Amino acid sequence: MRHAIGRASVALEQKGQKLGGLRYMSLDVRQLYGVAQLQTSTSVAESVEASSGVGLFAKKGAPPPPSLPPQPEKIKVTASVQCAFQIQ
């Protein structure tokens, strides 16, 4: 957004005009990396619980191992932003 405002301001300044208010903005996220690993680890824990037997005669086995706490990691996002501004 800052990049779009800077580019629009410079282009209008050359013509003696100023940037007005934001009229329209669109955000398009194309690729998101690093989030799939988090979803995969939770689905493994759910499948262990589902296969552990049900009913009166179910074996009481050891509980599934606790899921690991979330660890900080970098997430990469590829996106494009389109903005339309008023011209003063």
SS element count, helices: 2
Q: Quick one: biggest sheet?
A: 2 strands, antiparallel
The amount of beta strand, in percent, is 25-35%
Average residue-wise pLDDT: 75
What's the oligomerization state? single chain
What does the radius of gyration come to? 26 Å
- State the end-to-end distance: 19 Å
Strand numbers in spatial order across the main sheet = 1-2
User: What class do helices, strands and sheet pairing give?
Assistant: alpha+beta
Q: How many individual β-strands? A: 2
Q: Describe the global form.
A: rod-shaped
Low-confidence stretches: 38-52
- What sequence of helices (H) and strands (E) makes up the elements? HEHE
Percent helix: 25-40%
Task: Describe the protein's architecture and organization.
By secondary structure, the chain is of the alpha+beta class. The protein is built from two helices and two strands. It has helices spanning 2-13, 36-50; strands at 19-33, 76-87. It has a two-stranded antiparallel sheet with strand order 1-2. The radius of gyration is 26 Å and the shape is rod-shaped. The model is unreliable at 38-52 (pLDDT under 50).
